[in-house]
Design a protein that fits this description.
With about 200 residues, this protein is mostly helical. The chain has 9 helices and 2 strands; from the N terminus they run H-H-H-H-H-H-H-E-E-H-H.
């Protein structure tokens, strides 16, 4: 979105729309303990997960139950989705307008913020963008690769299989570095515990 080229703006629109659907799908797939012990009937969840429109129906019901102010009407969200379908399925050559990108971005952040109880999402995103666009990008090392791949193994992206370290560093070098540091600390702690449990 920030690059502003025609292709980038199309991809931004598609990505924000996908983020809306993924956030709702993920939320409904969580165990109740992972979502503030909120429970929903299985049959109802199955209906909500049926398609994009039914997922938005769920969210609109959810904000009413939580007494959250509606920042965007369902009709507007569906309109953005239809614009996205024109880009993705129909291969339309039109370029998303700035107001469309700003609108769907606002909706994506709002839905994520409400469902996962994360305040100030916009500020968190800005902070992360600064981190991953800073010239001081964390280095990739063989040690970090082994730690991450030893813990997470392989992953699948768009039908292809990758080492998790490859995918994670390509997506977010900061997250790669943070995960490696976490695993290194975990490994050190385990080694220390093993030393202390050894008989003298």
């Amino acid at each position: 979105m920030r690059d502003g080229q025609d292709f980038d703006r199309r991809m931004a629109l598609i990505s924000f729309d996908n983020a809306i659907e993924v956030a709702i799908t993920t939320y409904l797939s969580l165990h109740p303990i992972q979502r503030q012990n909120r429970e929903y009937p299985s049959a109802q969840v199955e209906q909500w997960l049926h398609d994009y429109h039914s997922k938005i129906d769920f969210f609109m019901i959810e904000i009413q139950q939580r007494s959250v102010a509606c920042e965007c009407e369902k009709a507007d969200i569906i309109w953005y989705h239809n614009v996205r379908n024109g880009q993705y399925h129909e291969g339309a050559a039109t370029i998303p307008q700035e107001r469309e990108l700003q609108g769907i971005r606002k909706v994506a952040l709002w839905i994520f913020s409400v469902l996962f109880d994360v305040p100030n999402v916009d500020q968190l995103v800005e902070s992360r963008i600064i981190q991953i666009t800073n010239k001081n990008i964390p280095a990739r090392t063989e040690e970090f690769d082994k730690l991450i791949d030893g813990e997470h193994g392989l992953c699948e992206v768009a039908g292809d299989t990758y080492y998790t370290s490859d995918a994670l560093y390509g997506i977010d070098p900061v997250a790669y570095s943070e995960e490696a540091a976490r695993l290194k600390a975990k490994q050190s702690s385990q080694n220390e515990s093993e030393k202390q449990s050894e008989p003298e």
